[in-house]
From TrEMBL:
The protein's name: UPF0301 protein C8J26_1789
Residue spans crossing the bilayer: none
InterPro entries in the cross-refs: AlgH-like
Family label: Belongs to the UPF0301 (AlgH) family.
Annotated source species: Sphingomonas aurantiaca
HAMAP family with a match to the protein in the record: UPF0301 (MF_00758)
Cellular component, GO annotation: cytosol
Length: 190
């Protein structure tokens, strides 16, 4: 029988952190900004790892956009689903036609208009670019959360915009008062 989840159980606007020993190597030390989560499923953008050799200017070049004064920021591995599809997680001070508000904490845009706006200096004041996303069907994430593997924390915009990808995982655990070095990869057996 299907049980309706209480809305407070949804994780939109929060972060999922991979626990040590995550069985899927694509998510080792993952930090996922949860952008949508309801009874139909969930979508998150991975921000814990960058793609070697790929910068923001490379993406702009693929669309024929001059970078202007935009920094050549790293591009993140957003997740294994649609790895060629781009996403911009950004501050709420800018919104395009298809921008989605994420729990009042940040916005998610996936159209070329946000890239143009950033390059022209009229885009969001803070942003992170990623390729791909992590996705779960209805009830799938809840099943994963019932087993060891993921830890969720509050949606701290300092983690999102002021912390480098290589430091986000450790920073997020520290903000939650957890030292990940003390966590074990396996659960006990009685």
């Amino acid at each position: 029988m299907f049980q309706r989840m209480d809305k407070t159980a949804f994780l939109s606007g929060q972060f999922l952190l991979a626990m040590p020993g995550m069985s899927d190597p694509r998510f080792a030390r993952a930090v996922i900004a949860m952008c949508s989560h309801d009874e139909n499923g969930a979508i998150g953008i991975g921000l814990g790892a960058t793609i070697d050799g790929l910068g923001f200017h490379d993406l702009l070049e693929q669309f024929g956009i001059e970078p202007g004064d935009a920094p050549n920021a790293p591009v993140h591995f957003g997740g294994p689903v649609e790895p060629r599809r781009g996403f911009v997680v950004h501050s709420s001070d800018w919104g395009g036609q298809d921008s989605v508000d994420v729990a009042g904490r940040w916005k998610l845009s996936s159209t070329v208009d946000v890239l143009r706006a950033i390059a022209e200096g009229r885009g969001p004041s803070q942003w992170v670019v990623a390729l791909g996303y992590a996705g779960w069907d209805g009830g799938q994430l809840e099943g994963e959360l019932s087993r060891p593997g993921w830890f969720n924390v509050a949606g701290d915009t300092g983690l999102l915009f002021d912390t480098g990808a290589e430091d986000r995982w450790t920073y997020a655990f520290a903000q939650a008062g957890v030292d990940p070095r003390l966590l074990v990869a396996e659960t006990g057996r009685a």
